[in-house]
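Session log. Operator J.P. requested a structure for one protein chain; no other inputs attached. Running the standard single-chain path with token output.
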Amino acid sequence: MVLIKPLFLISLICLSSCAKMGYLWNQGWGQMSLLSRARDNQEVLKDPNVSAADKLKIKRVEEFKSYFFTYWKRKPSGIYSETTFLDQEAVTYLVIASPYVEVKAIDHCFPFMGCFPYLGFFSQEKAQRFAKGLQEDSYETYVRPVYAYSTLGYFEDKILSSFFYYDDYQLAELVFHELFHTIFFIKNEVSLNEALATHFSRLMAFEYFNLTKNKIEAKKAERAKSVALNRLFSQEIKKYNEFLKKSNVKTPKEIKKLRKDYLKKKLLVRMKEKCEELAVKRCFPLEKEWNHASLAAFMTYESKGEELESLQREKGLSTREFFAFLSKNYEEYEELDVEEKFSKWLFHKK
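Structure written below.
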């Protein structure tokens, strides 16, 4: 099995363009570096130079992993059986790019794996260098750190020291989220895959921590506020995008000025009002400077969680039953060879 994974990577490289070949080669080395630097958890737990706090996090990840595979009645894999200590805070950095003339993340497509609205880099320096190149090609860019990711079963993912920044509840959701990607993944559906992993990891965390009904309702209430804020922000970005398309401005300088005025006088004003109405703890739209790439990044992860929750509620299904329902529908979808995306087909079909 060990030999199959490098061969898979080589096949991707051979079928890609020269530019993508270089990217995949670097990514391959980055991934192999993570693997080669990993140490068996039992060895790490015996190491006196590793802090007690880090050891406790490793034990917690192992507990969450065991629960996950037992919950879904799957045979445990070797995932998270080793730990890699990083020499930087994040494990990878995503680069999202958008044209100046609209808010739209450009796609990067690869054989077998499909298309993604970003590229990830194990090196922050390489991510910044790639972003600079895109800027020179008249794109706006946004680089964001990532603290965990899944290789979808192509490699046995390691526990990363970046996991240790999370508290136990967040860590459980993180582990359940990343492991979910390994048992259910829909090609060319980044937003839906994230929503699915988030949806099921949240439900599993409720059960794992045996939360009372009141605590679950409190968490749902907070989530409802977040969903409402995200929904409005998404709608306002779409309005801005339509406004931008109808305008006659073309140069980057003109567009930057137009965006600054629109956000200041319209979009962010509306978001501030919504934050005050919802009494949210933090009004994230007001906390950063936005460009088309960062706005596109938000739209990329625009949650389909509400639709999933509504569908599960409508069907009256438990967590496991809902998973079986989705799996069966995805099998049917693939057999039918439908042209539209699975998410659109699923939610319209119901």
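Operator note: Confidence is low (pLDDT under 50) at residues 1-18.
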